[in-house]
Write a structure and sequence with these properties.
GO terms for molecular function: ATP binding; double-stranded RNA binding; hydrolase activity; RNA helicase activity. With 687 residues, the protein is an alpha/beta fold. The chain contains 25 helices and 21 strands. Bound molecules: cytidine-5'-diphosphate (CDP) and magnesium ion.
């Protein structure tokens, strides 16, 4: 009987695939077990556990890839540190690291993510009541301290990647030092990849430091003969040189951000197409912080998309996230252009900007080290050797080069009123604290005597956003345009919504025009968001059944992808913005803010932008440039703005970037008169 035969065959197939699945799963478990056992840290497990038991503060220094982040929390779990419902919390400076490591550790433990092992980062929480090993960003643990100042749910807090010295790590160390005073003290472990543990040890009163021996193979360092004019181009040439000459081993390229990574991805694809078929066995894998989490794990997989690892070279295009936060297996070649995107703050002007600066020597060494994890490797530094000598020894802590408004707001919410007296591991300058206090005062977050204002200051501290954006949301509920502001803030929180490939500049600019608003970039961003929302959500052809839902999803995804391509829109960024949007919406709903839309009344929305971003307003100068009111700086509208080369008189903006010129980005046209009307405390003060 045909149906029997068919049934029979289906059953056998199923059995076979099930068996295959079981043996695959078994092989994977075995592989993981072996990998774990061969890590340098495995041989010192018992000694480490003893050290943690003996010391309330312990500093652990170990080379990247020795197994600190993935193994130590598991050691502590097995040693009974998670009894009575307590957890081990591990902070990471970067979202991607928290997510990818948690996934890996869940797999190592053979549990589902979000059960025993989970992660929690801003706008994404994968933990539950049974989570005992929790990876999170340093910023997130700071937020938790707002609700639970003694961090009482943790038995051990591990501050990982402390050498990165992010502003959140520094503040967290200060808070933890205070929490330590309570009895019984919270156990604290500080982990760092830099050999110099002194600064942490001294800060914690001579705390014990242990070093874990790593395993490092020799790495050949190659320099260019002359400085490179265009490091992106130089990186591209080097990728293909390695691909065509060396033929085996994966490549890791350090770039400065999403935009650059995506540009290189496209350029590599293009050049590949010009090569003969047999030379095209190369795949690019991007990794940066705002990459959707399902794509972040790709770097840990052997060549993706069904390609076999032996036949394809992987080119991992990473930000400095791959320096120490995540260890990518299989890397033999490192390409290091020698640059990093960093925050920079000018307290005199109160202006924070993102700039691309040379790495420090310590960073360059970490980067080259990535090539020698599994065997001898090579590192191509895209600058002459003489330049290396000129680099700073180590990177300046972020707290010394950022706007402190956010941190101060949180410290105030934690009851730390005397910011100048706070025991920072390294004190920010007095000028920077004063300027940031002034900034918060102007936003209405502080009272005359520098306390958090009620309700605005408290509301702002509750939102996980830059204070200026939190204030914009609060104001928008009064201006009846919170719908629009939620979208705006979500879109401003992601990188580059539009992309403009060099070779298709005109085409991409024409495409962008369909969304452009003559009023500026904020409304343009709303237009893009709403158009994407329409594609992804509008159900024109209901009925609403499970099957329809599936078909609809697949279909709309396809349409969305095509639409992104045709319009030069970065689908990843728009999806990320949609995620952020739903999270912040949840927060403002909880706070009881009224979510209404101003409909077509964009005048109302622009007035709200003026009221929110008045600190960043600029006026056109006779010679065509703009002058920022607050700082007096001469700036230009960035070429990516819809107001580039327009003749508008007065604008507000969100971002300043400095390349050869000072550019302002995310710009909207306003009336000068609104500023004196809506921010009289600032604009009468100025004149
Ligand atoms: O923290 P540390 O740099 O000392 O090492 P780790 O992050 O614990 O990594 C230990 C090992 O786990 C490395 O060999 C990584 O390649 C591997 N790993 C992985 O395969 N997949 C991940 N998602 C994370 C780590
Ligand atoms: Mg680590």
């Amino acid at each position: 009987m045909p149906s029997m035969a068919q049934n029979g065959r289906v059953t056998t197939d199923f059995k076979q695939s099930n068996q295959a699945h079981n043996s695959n799963a078994f092989a994977r478990r075995e592989e993981i077990r072996q990998q774990r056992e061969s890590l340098p840290i495995a041989s010192v497990k018992e000694r480490l556990i003893e050290e943690v038991k003996k010391h309330d503060v312990l500093i652990i220094v170990g080379e990247t890839g020795s197994g600190k982040t993935t193994q130590i929390p598991q050691f502590l779990f097995s040693a009974g540190f998670c009894r009575e419902g307590k957890s081990v919390g591990i902070t990471q400076p970067r979202r991607v690291a928290a997510v990818t490591v948690a996934k890996r550790v869940a797999e190592e433990c053979g549990v589902e993510l979000g059960q025993k092992v989970g992660y929690s980062i801003r706008f994404d929480d994968r933990t539950s009541g049974v989570t005992r090993i929790k990876y999170m960003t340093d910023g997130l643990l700071l937020r938790e301290a707002l609700l639970d100042p003694y961090l009482s749910r943790y038995s051990v807090v591990i501050v990982d990647e402390a050498h990165e010295r992010t502003v959140h790590t520094d503040v967290l160390l200060g808070l933890l030092k205070n929490v330590q005073k309570k009895f019984p003290p919270l156990k604290l472990i500080i982990m760092s990849a830099s050999l110099d543990a002194r600064v942490f040890s001294e800060y914690f009163g001579g705390a014990r430091a242990v070093h874990i021996q790593g395993r490092q193979h020799p790495v050949d360092i190659l320099y260019t003969l002359y400085p490179e004019k265009d490091y992106v181009d130089a990186a591209l040439v080097t990728i293909f040189q390695i691909h065509l000459e060396e033929r085996h081993g994966d490549i890791l390229v350090f770039l400065t951000g999403q935009e650059e990574i995506e540009a290189v991805e496209r350029l590599v694809q293009e050049r590949l197409r010009q090569l003969p078929e047999s030379n095209r066995k190369l795949v690019t894998v991007p990794i940066f912080s705002s990459l959707p989490s399902e794509q972040q794990m790709r770097v840990f997989m052997p060549a993706p998309d069904g390609h076999h690892v032996d036949s394809h070279i992987q080119v991992v295009l990473a930000t400095n996230i791959a320096e120490t936060s995540v260890t990518i297996p299989g890397i033999k070649f490192v390409i290091d252009p020698g640059f990093v995107k960093a925050r920079s703050y000018d307290p005199a002007k109160g202006m924070e900007s993102l700039i691309i600066i040379p790495t420090s020597k310590a960073q360059a060494l970490q980067r080259s080290g990535r090539a020698g994890r599994e065997g001898p490797g090579k590192c191509f530094r895209l600058y002459p050797e003489s330049e290396f000598e000129k680099l700073e020894d180590s990177t300046k802590p972020e707290i010394k080069r950022c706007n402190l408004a956010n941190v101060i707001l949180q410290l105030k919410a934690l009851g730390v009123d005397d910011i100048f007296g706070f025991d920072f591991i390294e004190k920010p300058s007095r000028a920077a604290i004063v300027k940031s206090l002034e900034h918060l005062f102007l936003l209405g977050a502080l009272t005359d005597d520098c306390k958090l204002s009620d309700p605005v200051g408290h509301q702002m501290a509750r939102l996980p956003l830059d204070p200026i954006y939190s204030k914009a949301l609060i104001l928008a509920s009064q201006f009846n345009c919170l719908e629009e502001m939620l979208i705006t803030v979500a879109m401003l929180s992601v990188d580059s919504v539009f992309y403009a490939p060099r070779e298709k500049l005109d085409e991409s600019r024409t495409a962008a025009k369909c969304f452009a608003s003559p009023d500026g970039d904020h409304i343009t961003l709303i237009n893009v968001y709403r158009a994407a929302e329409d594609l992804l959500e509008k159900r024109k052809w209901v009925p609403h059944t499970e099957r329809n839902e599936k078909i609809f999803k697949a279909k709309s995804e396809k349409i969305f992808k095509r639409w992104c391509k045709e319009n030069f829109i970065n689908g990843r960024s728009v999806r990320h913005a949609r995620d952020i949007h739903s999270q912040i919406r949840g927060h403002v709903e909880q706070m009881g803010l009224r979510i209404t839309s101003c409909g077509d009344d964009m005048l109302q929305f622009r007035r709200c932008l003026a009221a929110s971003f008045f600190i960043n307003a600029a006026l056109k100068q006779p010679e065509g440039n703009y002058r920022a009111f607050g700082t007096g700086q001469v700036v230009q509208i960035h070429p990516s703005s819809v107001l580039f080369q327009s003749k508008v008189e007065c604008v507000v903006f969100n971002e300043m970037v400095q390349t050869t010129n000072k550019y302002i980005r995310n710009v909207t046209r306003i009336e000068y008169m609104w500023l004196t009307e809506l921010a009289p405390h600032y604009y009468t003060m100025q004149s």
